[in-house]
Amino acid sequence: MDKPERPVSPFEKRTPAGSDTSEFDLARVLPKLLLIPDRARRFSISTREANRRFGMPLALLEALVTDGGPSRRRRDEVYFDRHDLFNVSLHLGVGSMARVAQRTWAAAFRNALLATSGHDLEYQATCPIPGHGQACSWTLALPGHASDDVRLHTDEGSLKYGVKVPACGELPPAPELIADLLEEVGSLELMRIPPSLQGDAAFITMTGMTDCLGAAALLADRARERGLRSRQSFGLMLAPPFANVHHWAEIEVDGVWVPFDPVMVNAMLRWRLVDPEYWHVGRSVGPLVARVADAYVPLVRHEGAEVPASLPMSRTAGH
User: Fold this and answer.
1) pLDDT digits (tens, 9 = 90+) for 76-105
2) Are the C-beta atoms of 252 and 228 separated by less than 8 Å?
3) What is d(CA 216, CA 117) in angstroms, rounded to the nearest whole number?
4) Number of Cβ within a 10 Å radius of residue 82
5) How many Cα atoms sit within 13 Å of 182 on the Cβ side?
6) What is the pTM of this model?
């Protein structure tokens, strides 16, 4: 009788023999991943896609499975959650996701020291229903326009709309009253959190992990508890050559709304991507950001429906 065929590992034919998985310090991130309940996950990224599209080494993916990391096996393939892969990439510094995120954030922090005269920003989008036979109707949520959307029409199948973003100017320092609060919130670990847990104060408190949305909500709430005027903000992180969406908190100091993001600042310090002589959790991120609204809003809508937008930008020239 023939022996039954042994199941083939999805890593076996593609991981070089003798690959050393000890180079990946999974102990730095795996305990954190295991604090996220599986009900919040979507195991939709195959081993093949994680390796080819996101640059995750096969040896690392195999080690993640072997060490009990979150994954699901279907047929001859192992699947991972996109947020887990981002967190592993970010905190171990491997794969394209870490490179893109850290490069973007580092660009924003560098730019903050140089952009003394503001930015030129362009909203770009493509008509999602080409050839529909009428002018395109667009609605834009812009920095500095509060709740007032900008509405316009174009005959072409694309949108290009320029915006001037002024420099934030001199901001008052953080009051002593919140110094310990900024340190406390800043001690949280920056992670990509699944949508169903974003902004969940109980989850943040229990795990010590948050994303930018949760950090903004927590800081604004805690500042309010101390009798300070505070608010959450959604808008743009100014990181030439492109702006990216971001969340942060703002606290009123001497009649001025001052943006703070101690979780992001501390993460950048831990990753040694910013100058510790200049940056600390009490320093405002005002030069990095441009406020659009209190909470998430679509930046571009076409005929009322949200569409993807590209946001190329540069520092205003001539100053």
Assistant:
1) 899 999 999 999 999 999 999 888 999 999
2) yes
3) 27
4) 18
5) 24
6) 0.89
